[in-house]
């Protein structure tokens, strides 16, 4: 450290403070964010018990997180599940969340959270009010499948990059959402964190992408993994 009058005065003032007061000042300079994702909750395979353990582990951290960002795939499957089975899974998720976590939380949509796209298996017609991504909107009270918000000194954008396509879905952000994101980012000067279910950038995209016979790189969408590890991270100012 280069000693200046300012940091010498600051050091001297800190020396006069009680240790708990110093800790309090230091804590205010840090935003702690928990990233929880891919619970795939269902009644089977002890998924509910595992989810409870994950939330309790997160809540037991010291200091506790200030904010929780959930990265999608809250339920095991609503893509091919009928309405009753889908409701059961969402009820489980909300009960676990309500009973084990009391922090502000924001959710991004995952492919498993989209209801009824497999119409034959889910016994849907596509005309149901909660069909497709509407169930996600309804369960969290969102008006769109993507949104942004400010928290302390940071700006956050929860994105929807599960683009429905004729062959199912692909990890892409559509033009309307991209226009919204550009405008949203132009309105803030705060450091910004983007959250999406499928990684926006991943080194896994080049794994096994080299064709030794042709000498070409072929990066296919099936190479990407949209499953993340439960992570707990601190964001420092």
Which outline best applies? globular
Number of helices: 7
User: What is the count of β-strands?
Assistant: 11
Strand content: 15-25%
Distance between the termini: 19 Å
Give structural notes.
It is globular and about 55 Å long. The chain contains seven helices and eleven strands. It has one domain (about 30-200, about 230-235): Purple Acid Phosphatase, chain A, domain 2 (4-Layer Sandwich). It is an alpha/beta fold. It has a four-stranded mixed β-sheet, covered by helices on one side. Strands 4-5-8 form a three-stranded mixed β-sheet, covered by helices on one side. Helix content is about 30%, strand content about 20%. The longest helix has 18 residues, at about 85-100. Strand 1 (about 30-35), helix 3 and strand 2 (about 65-70) form a beta-alpha-beta unit.
Break the fold down into its secondary structure elements and pairings:
Layout: H1 5-15, H2 19-27, E1 30-36, H3 47-59, E2 67-70, H4 83-100, E3 105-107, H5 119-122, H6 134-140, E4 147-151, E5 154-158, E6 162-165, E7 168-171, H7 175-186, E8 192-195, E9 210-211, E10 216-217, E11 231-236
Parallel strand pairs: 1-2, 2-3, 5-8
Antiparallel strand pairs: 1-11, 4-5, 6-7, 9-10
Helix pairs in contact: 3-4
């Amino acid at each position: 450290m280069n000693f200046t009058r300012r940091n010498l005065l600051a050091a001297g003032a800190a020396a006069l403070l009680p240790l708990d007061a110093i800790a309090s000042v230091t804590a205010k300079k840090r935003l702690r964010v928990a990233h929880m994702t891919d619970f795939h909750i269902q009644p089977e395979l002890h998924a509910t018990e595992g989810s409870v353990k994950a939330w309790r582990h997160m809540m037991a951290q010291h200091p506790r997180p200030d904010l929780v960002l959930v990265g999608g795939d809250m339920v095991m499957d609503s893509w091919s599940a009928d309405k009753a089975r889908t409701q059961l899974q969402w009820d489980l998720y909300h009960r676990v969340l309500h009973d084990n976590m009391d922090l502000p939380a924001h959710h991004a949509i995952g492919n498993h959270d989209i209801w009824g796209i497999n119409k034959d298996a889910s016994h849907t017609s596509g005309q149901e009010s909660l069909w497709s991504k509407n169930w996600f909107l309804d369960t969290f009270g969102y008006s769109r499948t993507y949104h942004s918000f400010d928290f302390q000194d940071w700006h956050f954008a929860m994105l929807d990059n599960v683009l429905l396509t004729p062959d199912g879905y692909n990890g892409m952000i559509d033009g309307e959402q991209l226009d919204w994101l550009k405008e949203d980012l132009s309105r803030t000067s705060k450091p910004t964190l983007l959250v999406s279910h499928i990684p926006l950038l991943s080194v896994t995209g080049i794994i096994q992408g080299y064709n030794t016979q042709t000498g070409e790189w072929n990066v296919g969408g099936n190479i990407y993994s949209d499953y993340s590890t439960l992570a707990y991270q601190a964001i420092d100012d």
